[in-house]
Amino acid sequence: MRLALVSSKGGTGKTTSVVSLAMVLHRSGRTLAVDCDPQGSLMSWSEAAAEEGHPLPFTVVSLATRDVHVRLADLGAGYEHVIVDTPPGDFGIIRSAILASSIVLVPVSPTGLDLNRIRPTFEVLSELAVSHPVEVGVLLTKVRRGTRSARTARGVLAEHGYTALRTEIPLAEHFAAAFGTVPSMLAEYWDLLGELRAITPP
């Protein structure tokens, strides 16, 4: 599986989702997680976990360049799964990460601001779709259980023609406090993986 988590807005939970998805992906094959963000949050997470004596069980590399798709052609060849974490504002890197992937997840929290800022991401996806079509799904993150915000967000997304995945990532303390650890509470990400496998081209 080759996938990228992409959003032109920061703070949507991309890195947490990359680590959590990599945790479940590595159970079914050798997994490479690629940090394309110059801020290096994914690498910092990996280094912090290793310093605590509990390294992440998958490979993490830093590749904050605009030729990610070219470099991953060789670098990712020995891996069953490659998952890419992207920066919020560098569209050159974002485009390259999309070109390296067959599935793109767009994480967004169910707030008016996040929903309003989703359009630039889909404009890039639309530009690339002619030459590089990918499966695209919006992943609702930081969802408050028992509130109407997620239902409202799904309505807004549907109005704009954006497909929201069934799986929702809750606003939960174990995700907020996960940085620098090996996450263990991954139920929603197992659900997400099942959903992704259903839409992955054979």
Structural write-up:
The chain is 42% helix and 20% strand. It has helices at residues 14-25, 41-51, 68-75, 91-99, 112-116, 119-129, 149-159, 173-176, 187-199; strands at 2-5, 31-35, 59-62, 81-85, 103-108, 135-143, 164-170. Strands 3-2-4-1-5-6-7 form a 7-stranded parallel beta sheet, sandwiched between helices. β6, α7 (149-159) and β7 (164-170) form a beta-alpha-beta unit. α1 (14-25) crosses α9. The termini are close together.
The SSE order reads EHEHEHEHEHHEHEHH
Task: Using the CA coordinates, give the radius of gyration.
Answer: 16 Å
Secondary-structure-based class equals: alpha/beta
Total helical elements = 9
Strand residues, percent: 15-25%
Q: What's the assembly state of these chains?
A: single chain
Which sheet architecture does the biggest sheet show?
7 strands, parallel
Low-confidence stretches: none
Strand order in the sheet with the most strands: 3-2-4-1-5-6-7
Name the helicity range: 40-55%
Kindly state the mean pLDDT as a whole number?
Answer: 93
CA(first)-CA(last) distance: 10 Å
Record field, number of beta strands: 7
Coarse morphology: globular
